[in-house]
Design a protein that fits this description.
This protein has two domains: 216 residues, Periplasmic binding protein-like II (D-Maltodextrin-Binding Protein, domain 2), CATH 3.40.190; 155 residues, D-Maltodextrin-Binding Protein, domain 2 (3-Layer(aba) Sandwich). It contains 17 helices and nine strands. One of its GO terms (molecular function) is polyamine binding.
């Protein structure tokens, strides 16, 4: 779970306690232990992440109307949320964590998730879960405050009408760097292509085929979700040009070395960059001028949910603007709830890393599923790139 003191950055606390980085996309052992502790006290789309998950942090059993099992990313709940929900509803909450959508999907498809009522899939994972018949259709008459969602999330392409999922958090993918180290401010990917020699082994890219290829496709003027083999090959050739600059493909683990100056530029999710910048304010995060992926994480109810009533209560609790605003403020993620946004402190409302201008959002794209033969093409080029 995130630290109980929200003013201590997740990056620093994660490093101090585990030697690892506490991020949206990574399962942290210390966080799992914290989640287990919360449960005992009755108290956040990576397409290429194949890390092995630690053993479950709790042991869900048969359906209990007074217990709600939630399966989520590490940074989307905290002790205060769980305790206040329990105080209001009388329902005990047990939180288990996963490190990637793929970990979550594998567990659910293998039948290991029948204990959970609420899960937090990313946008593209919602589509996959619908194809696998894992998600319940939401009874929207039981939901309160859907009209508070910002317009882009009223009718998302991955789940039209939010029929099976509720947008909960969102963010961008961009570049983190130290302007003093580079001696300049950068606007996007042009800087990397123009400075291949001086950036030798100074760059980290996400360990995520679609995010990396999507960023370069947008740099080339194409859709992040291109299904055109010629465009995908062009993006691959551009990445081959960048290959001398790439020290590693890291979704996590780049933070220490970027902060220390060992790396010059790291491709990052906005939430992870923001957590790092809290401790290293000399760093900067930008959304490339060519555009960014706009990712969304959601709440959904599983078809096998043993406690759907408590699941609806959980979703409604978080949809309540006051609750959503407090959670977003404590955990420093972006909320798609416009009523909650209006309750945030001015410094968070004006944080362009959390809430980029509408023009940036309009220019972005969400990662969508592609046909199997196109996915195989991406994977083939990715294997060639990462093994070279």
């Amino acid at each position: 779970m995130p630290p109980q003191n929200p003013r201590i950055s997740r990056w620093r606390q994660g490093r101090a306690s585990t030697g690892a980085v506490f991020t949206r996309r990574r399962f942290i052992q210390a966080s799992a232990a914290a989640a287990s502790g919360v449960a005992l006290s009755n108290c956040a789309r990576n397409l290429s992440n194949n890390q092995t998950q630690a053993p479950p942090t709790s042991s869900p059993t048969a359906a209990d109307p007074n217990t709600l099992y939630v399966y989520t990313w590490a940074n989307y709940t905290d002790d205060e949320l769980i305790q206040t929900f329990q105080d209001q509803t009388g329902v005990r909450v047990v939180v288990d964590l996963y490190d990637s959508n793929e970990t979550m999907l594998a567990k659910l498809e293998a039948g290991g998730g029948s204990q959970y009522s609420v899960v937090y899939p990313s946008d593209y994972a919602v589509t996959q879960m619908l194809e696998s018949n894992l998600l319940a259709e939401l009874d929207q008459s039981q939901l309160q405050g859907l009209n508070n969602l910002r317009e882009p999330w009223q009718n998302p392409s991955y789940d039209p009408g939010n029929a099976h999922s509720i947008p909960t958090t969102w963010g961008t993918t961009g570049l983190a760097y130290n302007p003093e180290t580079l001696g300049t401010d950068i606007q996007g990917w042009d800087y990397l292509f123009d400075n291949v020699d001086s950036l030798s082994r100074q760059v980290t890219l996400l360990n995520d085929v679609r995010e990396v290829f999507g960023a370069i496709l947008m740099h080339l003027g194409y859709s992040l979700n291109s299904t055109n083999p010629a465009e995908i090959e062009e993006a691959y050739q551009a990445l081959v040009q960048l290959r001398p600059t790439i020290a590693s493909f890291l979704t996590n683990g780049w933070e220490d070395q970027l902060a220390s100056g060992d790396f010059s530029i790291s491709m990052a999710y906005s939430t992870d960059a923001i957590a790092l910048i809290d401790d290293a304010p000399e760093l900067t995060y930008i959304v490339p001028e060519s555009g960014s992926s706009i990712w969304t994480d959601t709440m959904a109810i599983l078809k096998t949910a043993p406690n759907p009533d408590a699941a609806y209560a959980w979703i409604n609790y978080i949809l309540t603007p006051e609750n959503s605003a407090k959670l977003a403020e404590r955990l420093k993620f972006a909320t798609p709830n416009k009523a909650a946004f209006e309750l945030l402190p001015a410094d968070q409302q004006q944080n362009k890393n959390l809430y980029p201008p509408e023009a940036v959002v309009a220019k972005g794209e969400g990662v969508t599923n592609v046909a199997p033969e196109i996915a195989a093409l991406y994977d083939r080029y990715w294997t060639q790139l990462t093994s070279s």
